[in-house]
Specification:
- Residues 1-25 form the signal peptide.
- With 492 residues, the protein is α+β, with helices and mostly antiparallel strands.
- The chain has helices spanning 8-23, 84-108, 205-208, 281-284, 286-289, 381-394, 467-470, and strands at residues 31-35, 70-71, 73-74, 132-135, 137-138, 147-153, 158-165, 172-174, 198-199, 213-216, 221-227, 233-245, 248-262, 270-273, 292-296, 307-312, 322-327, 337-338, 340-345, 348-349, 368-370, 377-380, 400-401, 410-412, 418-422, 424-428, 432-436, 442-444, 450-453, 455-458, 463-465, 474-478, 483-487.
- It has two domains: 31-39 and 319-487, Acid Proteases (Cathepsin D, subunit A, domain 1, Beta Barrel); 48-311, Acid Proteases (Cathepsin D, subunit A, domain 1, Beta Barrel).
- The chain starts with 7 loop residues before the first helix and ends in a 5-residue tail after the last strand.
- The model is unreliable at 10-25, 43-74, 110-130 and 138-144 (pLDDT under 50).
Length: 492
């Protein structure tokens, strides 16, 4: 072979590599269609029996070998004399309080929304290891969270609505006797009527896991307290109880039996903490259900017949999911951190948005969490401004409208049935690209056809991926694999 000449076989190899990389790569889509559906009247009430089930329906009368699902019901349908606009205003007010709560938690690493940040062992019954699921209901008017599920508590089970919250660890509900209890939809749980209720002794390992605990010296039972950033709190006895999900019973779950519950809690009986901490429901039941769960949140602004479920166990992971690693905050183990490395608008990476803007430092500051209770995604200010400017440029042909509340980029789409809008893709670590449907980032704010770009900036350093951007995806929390997954069209 002559010196300096490349063999023909090598040239052919280079040619085919180039051909494959240019011809078969999939470029990001530049535009997609937004169906313009302004606010209408709140959904009419549908039978709530779809979200409930008889207490006589046990595992003998239901088949739990397969994943179960029930239709999702908007809590809007249960609201009386409320308009869509008023509900939306309340939603944004709650959202602001929620973000303050989460932000304060990450700066103080104590108290607040989750209240429990220590690793713990499984405390759940391990017999009859099967997957189980429960329906989810959107909870717009509630102050403590946005989505709810119906769970049986005690033996025999008494069914109640409970908030789903990935930003909290503790499981709690209102209990009789009430010193101060807020109004809830179902009768207040009375532990005296349950055969499986058991108080936790003072000084026991379970009691010691609480960040804020005390002791009832007369009964020698453990006491708990959880304070939330908006001033709400719950105080009472810490105990174990059996929870029932559509007939599947989960025994010995540590929970707070609240006798003094004050603040913004309305409607639901309590809270099902889904965080990463040692006292959360997924952690307590992890060994039984594979340390994994997933949920899908439907479009809460539309009247939809799509079903949704929260699923625990192997069935919670769809094959279409793409995964990114969980990031661990050494100072706070409640939240689900993940690695956001960039955002594309109109098929092009937004300049100025890189992983350095979302880095979690050694002190536990910064980072990005995904949260079921926050509605609008917050990005640290430089990243948000770069994203907003890129979207404004790509949507220059749309008629602008004045800003609204926390939204500074709005459009007047009145008289239109559909419009072309730039695509938005969120890029996560390990190549997990999540392409958002148009309705996940342009949302109606009134009945006059005004839509706003559903992102906002924050100066706190903590970025939060909210549930508007999550809607329609099945979000997988695989604690066993230390990863978070996204599956499009996951509510089917």
């Amino acid at each position: 072979m002559e010196e300096g000449r490349i063999p023909k076989t090598t040239l052919l190899a280079f040619f085919f590599i180039f051909l494959f990389s240019t011809s078969f790569s999939t470029p990001l889509q530049q535009h997609q269609t937004l169906i313009v559906v302004p606010f209408s009247n709140p959904p009419t009430l549908k039978p709530v029996d779809d979200l409930s089930w008889s207490e006589s329906q046990t595992s003998e009368s239901l088949d739990f070998q397969n994943t179960l699902s029930l239709p999702l019901q908007h809590i809007d349908a249960l609201s009386v004399n409320e308009t869509s606009e008023s509900l939306f205003h309340l939603r944004l007010q709650r959202d602001e309080l929620r973000v303050k709560t989460l932000t304060s938690l990450t700066t103080t690493t104590a108290g607040g929304g989750g209240g429990h940040h220590r690793n713990g062992n499984n405390n759940a019954t391990r017999a009859n290891a099967k997957d189980f699921s429960s329906s989810i209901v959107s909870g717009l008017p509630q102050g403590s969270g946005e989505y709810f599920t119906r769970i049986g508590v005690g033996t025999p089970p008494k069914y109640s609505y409970m908030v789903l919250d990935t930003g909290s660890d503790i499981v709690w509900l209102q209990c009789a006797p009430c010193r101060k209890c807020y109004s809830q939809t179902d009768p207040i749980f009375d532990p005296k009527n349950s055969q499986s209720f058991s108080g936790v002794p003072c000084g026991s390992p379970l009691c010691r896991k609480l960040d804020v605990s005390g002791c009832n010296t007369q009964r020698k039972s453990c006491l708990y307290q959880v304070n939330y950033g908006d001033g709400s709190f719950t105080v009472g006895e810490y105990a174990t109880e059996t929870l029932t999900f559509r007939g599947t019973k989960v025994g010995n779950v540590g929970f707070g039996c609240g006798h003094d519950n004050e603040g913004l809690f309305v409607g639901a009986a309590g809270l099902l903490g889904l965080g990463r901490g040692g006292l959360s429901f997924p952690t307590q039941t992890g060994r039984r259900f594979g340390n994994k769960f997933s949920y899908c949140l439907v479009d809460r602004s539309s009247i939809s017949s799509k079903a949704s479920a929260i699923v625990f166990g192997e069935s919670s992971i769809p094959r279409s999911a793409v995964f990114t690693p969980m990031v661990t905050n050494p100072k706070l183990n409640t939240f689900y951190y993940l690695d956001l490395v960039g955002v594309s608008v109109g098929g092009t990476r937004v300049p100025g948005i890189s992983s350095t803007l979302f880095r979690l430092d050694a002190a536990g500051n910064g980072g990005v969490i995904i949260d079921s209770g926050t509605s609008v995604t917050r990005l640290t200010r430089p990243a948000y401004e770069a994203l907003r400017d890129a979207f404004r440029s790509g949507a220059a042909e749309l008629k602008r409208a004045p800003g609204f509340s926390l939204f500074d980029t709005c459009f007047d789409l009145s008289g239109k049935t559909e419009v072309k809008v730039p695509t938005v893709v969120m890029h996560f670590g390990r190549g997990a690209d999540v392409s958002l449907p148009a309705s996940n980032y342009l949302i109606p704010i009134n009945s006059n056809g005004v839509f706003c770009f559903a992102f906002a900036g924050t100066t706190s350093g903590l970025s939060i991926i909210g549930n508007i951007q999550q809607q329609g995806f099945r979000i997988v929390f695989d604690n066993a694999g230390s990863r978070i997954g996204f599956a499009p069209r996951g509510c089917a």
